[in-house]
Design goal:
Elements: H1 3-15, H2 18-24, H3 29-43, E1 48-49, E2 58-59, H4 61-84, E3 92-99, H5 100-103, H6 107-117, E4 121-128, H7 130-138, E5 144-146
Parallel strand pairs: 3-4, 3-5
Antiparallel strand pairs: 1-2
Helix pairs in contact: 1-2, 1-3, 1-4, 2-3
Length: about 180
């Protein structure tokens, strides 16, 4: 299996568009088309319904079935590279969305550790409210979100990282009615 073809399949499926996948992978739309065509030939299945025009490309039922397996292969490949100590295993740009609460608490320690563990990774950070960051995760303009609560989408993985205790604080003169 060709790694580039598998990676391309995941990006086209995620972005729903060959041109956007080409931009993301820093290549041309014909190269993306060739990779998908080659993968479809290699697997002997059609992965995408291509209706043409400006309508988004959608996965076939077989494409939907195979996507989690391909994502797992790519994840395992990155884990193998990490275990082997390849410094290029994590390189490029990470588009990170962070809520203000996290920015003001443990984010500096997280970024320090991230830089130590993955020195070839460049972080583009967006600080915003959870609702806006959630939209960025859904539309794939963000790669990772550190949010104040989960996102209810079948294709998004949520992991609880921490909890914050909240308190109501008021002046002793305050008298609720």
């Amino acid at each position: 299996m060709n790694y580039k073809r598998l990676e391309t399949f995941v990006w086209v499926a995620s972005l729903g568009n060959f041109r956007k996948a080409a931009e993301r992978l820093h290549t041309t739309q014909p190269a993306i088309s060739a990779r998908i065509s080659g993968l479809e030939t290699e697997l002997g299945v059609k992965l995408f319904d291509r209706e043409g025009g400006s309508s988004p490309i959608t996965l076939t039922s077989k494409g939907k079935e195979l996507l989690p397996y391909v994502e797992k292969i790519l994840y395992q490949t990155e884990q193998l590279r990490k275990r082997a100590g390849l410094s290029t295993a994590y390189s490029g740009i990470l588009r990170l969305g962070v809520s203000e609460t996290i920015v003001n608490t443990w984010l500096p320690d997280f970024l320090s550790r991230l830089n130590k563990d993955m020195p070839n990774l460049d972080v583009e950070m967006t600080v915003d409210i959870t609702a806006n960051l959630s939209n960025g995760i859904k539309d794939r303009s963000l790669d990772l979100g550190l949010l104040m609560g989960p996102i209810s989408e079948p294709n998004i993985v949520n992991r609880e990282l921490c909890t914050f205790s909240l308190s109501w604080v008021a002046s002793p003169k305050f008298r609720p009615t």
